[in-house]
Each structure stands twice: as C-alpha cells, then as structure tokens.
Amino acid sequence: MTSDTLERGSDTRGNDIDVVILGAGINGAGLFRDLALQGINCMIIDKADFGSGTSAAPSRLIHGGLKYLETGEFGLVAQSTLERNLLLKNAPHCVEALPTFIPVFSWTRGIGAAIRTLFGSKTAPRSRGAVLIKIGLALYDFFGSRDRVMPKHRLILKRKAKREMPHVTSAIVAGGIYYDAKISRPERLVYELVRDGLEANPGCGAENFTSLVSRSGGELRFRRDNGTEFSVRPKLVVNAAGPWIDHVNEALGAPSRLIGGTKGSHILIDHPELVRSLNGHMIYFEADDGRICLVYGYLGLALVGSTDIPSKDPDNVNCEDPEIDYFLQSLRSLLPTLRFDRDQIVYTYSGIRPLPASDGTAPGLISRDHSAPVIEAGGDRPFAIMSLVGGKWTTFRGFAEEVADSVLSRLGQPRRQSTRYLAIGGGRGFPADASTRRRFLDKLATGLTPARAEELLARYGTTSEAIAAFPSEHSDEKRIAGTADYSFKEIDWIVRNELVTRLSDIVLRRTTIAIEGKLTLDGLRDIAGIAAVALGWDAARREAEIDDVVLLLQKFHGQRLTSGVAEREIGKNALPGG
Questions:
Q1: 3-state DSSP call for residue 321?
Q2: How many Å apart are CA 309 and CA 505, to the nearest integer?
Q3: Residue 405 phi, psi dihedral angles, 5° rounding
Q4: Beta bridge partners of 9
C-alpha cells in the first residue's frame, strides 16, 4: 500500500462495505467518526474537500440558539446548549467561551409578538424588550444547566452597559450579558473528525475531490480528481450532502424534495478599535429591520453576520453588495461613534444552510432542528438511503449519535462506545489548567521560542507536538512570505499528514491564513512550492493550483492577492454580482 493509501484508510475497492457517507461536512464527518468507533466499516466521500461547503461558512459560533426559544423549539435549545457545553470540554483547542452582550432598547416591547410566534405566527418578533430578554436568558440558563461550564446571565442598567460597551448607541436602556461559545477553526475540526475515524478503524476510508459517477444496481462508481475510478457495494448509503442532498438522491435514482436552503453571509473587518472595545464579547443585536445580527472578535479581526436569504444555488454563492451594505449600516446604527466602510473589509464568505423545505415560512423561522428521513430499498437499488436534513453546527455530535444508533440497529450491531465525553483531534490531552499547560509548553518549546510554542498550541492543540517534532527539510524559523505567523515546516507537516489534495485545502481549511487576511501572492507561491515537492506536482500543476486559489479568493471571498498584502477587492465594488 502507498503512503497515501495508508493515510486515507482501506483501499479494498469493489468489495462490500457497511456504509457509504456522501458528503464530508460537519454532519457527515461526525457520523463517520461515530460509526468508525463502533467498528462499522464505512467510507466518507466528498466531491470537494472535507468541510469545504456549508460547514466552512457558519457564524463560527458554538451556541444554544437563543432565538429558537421564540419559536418554541425548546428541545433544540436543550440539545444545543448541552452540545455547546460538551464541545467546550471535547474541543478546547478550538472552542472557547464567548461572553455575549445584548443591547436592550425598551422595557416591555415584543412580548405579544413573541407569544404569537411561539404559537405559530409566520412573522418574526420585533423589538425585544428587557422583560422578554430577561425571561429568555433565564430559560437559556435553565436549558444549559447540563454539564454547565460557564456563568449564568446577568441584566445590567444603561450606565453600566455603556461602561461595558462604550461605543454602543445611547438609545439603549439596559443590556443583557450571557455566555455562548465560538470556534476558531471549524474547517479543521471537520478534518479532525475524519482523521479520528480513520485512526479508530483501519477498515474505513476517506476520499475528497471524488465524484459519484453512476449507480448500477447496488454498486456505486466514483471518480477521483486525478481520473482514477473505484466502486463500492454498500449495505446502506447516508446522504450528508447538505444543500446538495436532493441532487445526490436524484443521482442515486431516488428523487426527493427535502431541502429549502437559505443563504448566510458574513464579513470580516480589520478594525482594531472595535475589537479592543468589545473586550472579548460578542454583541448580539437586532438590526433596524428586526433581523438578528452579531459582531465579535475573531483572530484579531471583527466578524460580522449574518443574512438569511432564500437560495438554491450552493455552487455559486457569495456575499453580495446589498448584504455588505446591510452589515455596514447595521454596525453604524449600533455603534455610531465608530467608522465602518468597505475599505476595512478583509474577507467575505457565504454558504447555503441545508434547511428543510418549508413553503411560505419566513427564512428566520424555518426550523434549525435535524431529521434523517429514509428512502427504503426499491427496484434495482438494494440499499436504503438515509438523508441528513437540517441541523446546526453545534449539534453535530448529538445528530451523529442519533443517526449512528439507527444505522447500528439496521446492521444488527451494538454500540461499543459513547462520543459524549470523547475529545476530538488536537483536543485530546489538551492541558486543562495552568500548571499542566506550563509543562506541556516547556516540552513543546524545545527548539522553539516560548511564543512560538504558544502559537502552535493555540492553533493545533496537542497536534502541535507532532508538528514540532516533524523531521522536515524546512526550518520552523523560515516563514511564509507576507506573514510572520506561519512557517515552512508547519505547512510541510500539514501537506504530508492531513489528506491535502489541492492548494486551496491548505490556505482555506487546514489553516486560517486566508481568512485572517495574511495570504499574499508571494506567500501562496511559497506554500505551493512546499506542496509541489511533497505531492509530486510538476510546474504546470503548481501554477494551475496557484491560479485556482487566486480565482477562488477573488470570486467568493472578495480578496485579490498581490505580492505585498492582500488587496481588498470589496472596497472596489468588484464582487461578482455586486
């Protein structure tokens, strides 16, 4: 077997396999890990990279869904707050607590509208007053009491609220402070789930940039990006393709109408004064049109989101000019003493939420709960198809557990292991207290400066040990052009050890170098050169990969790379569709 085969798992193509999972987003990856841990031989296959679709476009929050209290989805809030608390324990290398400030503009408004929504109104509540917010936050604390790891909420009056958030408009009468969480590197966590599954069961396999070519009876045929093909005969197929679910079911010969997606867009702005004034908090606020928006510090930038627009084209989705204008105007209304303009925008991104089809319902009121409808075997198709519909990023583990139990029941296999308290990837063995952290960093800092050891631990968790010890031909002191934060050795380790297929995998998903606005054209050439040696690319392939990343960043993320710093294409009104 080649080293690539060993990396990706079993290569027994054409043989029977228990389960094929189509789609390697967060729900598919979570299920893959769970099934692998139970000894189920499965394959996870994605037409692009792991975690490259909707799962790469969230608000980067791990949260209970405060707004779902208004729609009466108490079960979803209960599960979400539990899973939030568990992720703070199981993925401490990339999930951390996020104190959140809610500006309050009245004392009693919104109660009637909230009651009507709770009982099925198709319009969203507006102007949530202090009484309503106090009730909501108390309920939120109650539902989040299982495995609690964060403080309870508090309501503060205007004077203290203005001290906490000095740039918030003086129109507020009070403020609420509660706790949720944020995830620094969601794309990496998706990859780590896949990696955990491969390590748990050598009989499992993972393929990215691999497309479904055809189904003939019970055999599925796939084609990799390099043109090679293979086929498998599964006992069960799980369709975890997110907004592409209906397209995949059609290709499997089982047409469906399960998805009615909405587009969510976000922007990241370079605004040091704003980030400092937030003091580690998120502001969760109601825009002038009643929609909920948010802003918080993310890797030194300010992340702003999100829109909620009906959309059915997940392959061509970007943050458009009207959405950018909406974000900037919302920030100006909320924080009138600060400047907000297009020239501050570093990066934009969008994704389609794979929500259940729901005619006539306002986008914000479509349920974020999950389900797994089954199309049973029929005709010449001997396997059932289970589709993973809806869900929130936060609840992936619980969703995976529910689906895995159903799969195990169909296969007549017992559950061997719970994932409830199982650490993920670089969260395994993560130093939980100051003294343990000091010992870990002292060990890691052999050959590294203390600051560099801290940087690697924050970025990769305990995986940083393998990176620091990796015998690369490159030095950790040699840095990628345009940034002092990423080394040649670090990138070399990623390319050789993290199932990298394309250059975009490195800069958009295994690292956050592009979203941080630290990628330059010279830096991209450095990274491409490292990848070319490790993956055997010739000069033509290397240049094609560079061109592909440049196009992706310009078309979908509003960045134009130059040999200096990333040029802010957004400020020039040059976004497609703008």
A1: helix
A2: 28
A3: -60, -40
A4: 205
